[in-house]
Amino acid sequence: MKAVVITSPGGPEVLQLHQVDDPQIKDDEVLIKVAATAINRADTIQRQGKYPPPKGASEYLGLECSGTVEAVGSRVSRWKIGDQVCALLSGGGYAEKVAVPEAQVLPVPQGISLTDAAAFPEVACTVWSTIFMTSRLSPGETLLVHGGSSGIGTFAIQIAQHIGIRVFITAGSKEKLEACRDLGADVCINYKTEDFVARVKEETDGKGVDVILDCLGASYFQRNLDSLNFDGRLFIIGMMGGTKTEMNLPTLFAKRLTVQAAGLRYRTAENKAAIVNEVEKNVWPAIAAGKVKPIVYKVFPFSEAADAHKLIESSQHIGKILLVPS
Description:
Blueprint: E1 2-6, E2 15-19, E3 29-38, H1 41-47, E4 64-72, E5 84-88, E6 97-101, E7 105-107, H2 121-132, E8 142-146, H3 151-163, E9 166-171, H4 174-183, E10 187-190, H5 196-203, E11 209-214, H6 221-226, E12 228-236, H7 249-255, E13 258-261, H8 269-282, H9 284-288, E14 296-301, H10 305-314, E15 320-324
Helix pairs in contact: 2-3, 2-8
């Protein structure tokens, strides 16, 4: 098969399409012929040599995919050859075939194309496992999403709105703010021209929001705490703004705040299976009902993976960037 290979750690130019061996499936895995995969920020960090795949995972990039089941292991019961599916991966999506544990595979949502289905697994599992399963975001509460126009952000806006959450977002351009507003965001804040803490307080009568989903980390840490309501929850899923910071502990005590952080890739197979099960039960019906749509900015062939990485690193996109076999 062909796969996008990291020839050496570095910039986007190190990505090249090579002929490689097909993956071998285990008894509890399915082999998917990949129709599409999606670009995630984590892919760019792995490309730089700073985010190695978990032990036993594919060495190739790609944390999600869609495609057709080509083979099944002896202990696989749900899936059969020919099924159209999408999947949460620990790696391997940037290849024509990928082996995936059965429990991390999902049906293509009703009404969604096979290609567009690749835009859902990583964002759906990330958002649902963090702010809903862990932070217990509930109808009637308020949510602030940083990077509202990202793949994570555009998904979070839609699912939160569907559930009855008042959604605040930050983004850095008029075009991105308008896109978020069109998706259902209630309060759209330009972080380049506005103080998001002040705007959040203004829009909530001085209370703050109940939950924040943050991809910046250190640079926003204290401001995020200042933006939370009593019993507020900050969930950190990225460190684009740095890894080290200082915090004002009295803020936590005074407002009974909770700070949480997690990723998906290094979780156990059992934990991933539980998340995927909850996503299928809670998110897939919303997609089938047309309440949550795939937001796909651009589709590249595998042979142009370097250009796809340049685009995501430029932050000019809105929604997801997909890769398809050349």
